[in-house]
Amino acid sequence: GRRGERAAEEGPAERGPGAAFHMFVLMEDLLDKLKLLSYEEEALQRHNMRPLSRHYFSLPTNPGEQFFMFCTLAAWLITKAGRPFEQPQEYDDPNAVISNVLSELRSF
């Protein structure tokens, strides 16, 4: 098999010592990009939410809260990209919300 295929099948130990921390680096990069887009002022203050920690999505601490934050940010980003998108509510059906987000992203 090709190297990329093999790396996907290997566990973190086989990919190197830093592989287990890659998700933390990705989350820090995501947070930097959100800050450049002024997510704190435009998305969080509007919904009275706290800013994300550097590793908010890296570990499953509160999946319900994390899912709602993801949906809020996804809706805000879609709207920021110029598409009208209704802000999901906390108790909306998760499957319907994700379906709507994916449908909108496919239309880009």
TrEMBL record:
Its GO CC terms are: cilium; Golgi apparatus; intraciliary transport particle B; microtubule organizing center
The GO annotation for biological process reads: intraciliary transport; non-motile cilium assembly
**Pfam families, per the entry:** IFT57
Compartments annotated for it: namely:
Cell projection, Cilium
- Using the UniProt record, give the first listed, main subcellular location: other
State the UniProt keywords alphabetically. Answer: Cell projection, Cilium
Q: Extract the InterPro entries matched here.
A: Intra-flagellar_transport_57 (IPR019530)
Similarity field: Belongs to the IFT57 family.
List the protein's name: Intraflagellar transport protein 57 homolog
Q: What taxonomic classification does the UniProt entry list for its organism?
A: Eukaryota, Metazoa, Chordata, Craniata, Vertebrata
Q: Which gene encodes it?
A: Ift57
